[in-house]
Design a protein that fits this description.
10 helices; 13 strands; six-stranded parallel β-sheet; globular; Rossmann fold
């Protein structure tokens, strides 16, 4: 059973076992506790992994507790991947370039931010026969996950990248990042407004489409950012939402005969990299996948 602790005042501190946690809001749907607790149990790791529902204005006090509360590692999910950076001591090179953190390492009294999102997801795309290098890729959403993916895709030698988002600060930040990445890597990056004519053209031209938004989950479960009539059989369609596992976007893609990657596959892949950072262990994928199947059946 997943237990969710709400609010900074309810953050537990270590008893007899070290603590690990995922922080975000909403967090009740998170499968991270199932993934890590099943892995810990199989590997004989002494630790408990919990879910913490925290608002952005609670992060400062939360990190003060994390530093002294016996925590061995933290995962960060929406909407805090950018906001946590100011509370960390160091960033890995990748996290610094991406401007987003999803994994926090506790090492020698310091909190070090990493980002394993892109590594995990790009590995899953390769499993269905996709390759970022030499391809045109459309990434929807300019939050933490989108920033990580656009950065890694540029570093991996994409032929062309298009980054789409709603108007607002994240769109402007995406434009700034695009210029820096193009200068660094030579990869052309277009930044377009979600739903615009430029966006629709990008859907038609892209070989790989990755949606990193919350569209497809919760109150937005019946919605999609990609018009279904534009999805082709030769597309690779990725949705980082993992609850529900088959979103409207993925259902449309499968109906069109496209190859798909769901958010749960990405979650497990990035979680494995996280455990490697925290504990230098190899996650037992078969054990974790069985635990996830059981948890989803119960839900």
């Amino acid at each position: 059973m997943k237990i969710v602790h709400h609010g900074v005042e309810n953050i537990p501190v270590m008893g007899k076992r070290p603590l690990y946690a995922v922080i975000g809001t909403p967090i009740a749907q998170s499968m991270s506790p199932v993934i890590h607790n099943s892995s810990f149990a199989h590997l004989g790791i002494d630790g408990d992994y919990i879910a913490l529902d925290l608002q952005t204005d609670e992060l400062k006090d939360a990190f003060a507790k994390f530093r002294t509360g016996g925590y061995g590692g933290i995962n960060v999910t929406m909407p805090h991947k950018n906001a946590v950076i100011e509370y960390l001591d160091e960033l890995s090179d990748g996290a610094r370039l991406m401007g987003a953190v999803n994994t926090i390492e506790f090492r020698d009294g310091k909190l070090i931010g990493h980002n394993t999102d892109a590594i995990g997801l790009l590995g899953e795309i390769a499993k269905v026969g996709g390759q970022i290098k030499g391809c045109t890729t459309l990434i929807i959403g300019a939050g933490g996950t989108g920033a990580a993916l656009i950065t890694q895709a540029a570093l991996d030698g994409a032929q062309r990248l298009i980054h789409a988002n709603r108007p607002g600060p994240n769109l402007e930040a995406a434009r700034d990042r695009a210029g820096e990445l193009t200068e660094l890597t030579g990869v052309p990056i277009d930044v377009v407004e979600l739903g615009s004519s430029e966006f629709l053209t990008a859907v038609r031209e892209a070989a790989i489409i990755i949606d990193c938004t919350m569209v497809g989950m919760g109150k937005l479960a019946e919605l999609t950012n990609v018009p279904p009539e534009l999805i082709r059989a030769d597309h690779i369609i990725v949705d980082t939402v993992y609850y529900p596992r088959v979103t409207r976007l993925l259902a449309d893609a499968r109906l069109a005969g496209a190859r798909t990657v769901d958010g749960l596959a990405m979650l497990v892949a990035q979680a494995a990299y996280g455990e490697k950072i925290w504990l230098n262990v190899d996650m037992p994928f078969d054990v974790v996948e069985t635990a996830l199947e059981k948890a989803q059946t119960k839900d």
